[in-house]
Amino acid sequence: MKITKILSLLICMMLILILGACGGKNDYGLVEVDKEKEIVSLLDSKETRGVRYVYFGRPTCPECKIFQPKLEEVLDSKKIKVLYFNTDTFKESDTFFKTVSMFNVSSVPSLVRIENGKVQKVLLYEKDKSKIDSFMD
User: Fold this and answer.
1) Domain ranges of the chain
2) CDD domains attached here (predicted)?
């Protein structure tokens, strides 16, 4: 009887551990930036290899509310991580305008492609999900 209880308890604990591990965070999707330097550091070609993306937007922007869900669908299908720079969060920063100009951003929503530490191209507000998808190829 004791062995049955111990085995049942062990099985329950194993299931909890397995389910907990499966329910972890994704390594893709939008990841909100806490500090401006997180995205500025992407422009260092010595540190940044490959392709990275930064999405400039804000929750109070009507166009962003249309663009962002489409972007998130593309990210889920391609399993891509994009840093999200919420301009409402940083608009009072002393370096805000310098930061957005470094990424050639003139309006939101904007999606910036960075390759090996250099801004390669910027996608301005786009309603067509297929164009967002092809921008990220």
Assistant:
1) 26-135
2) TRX_family
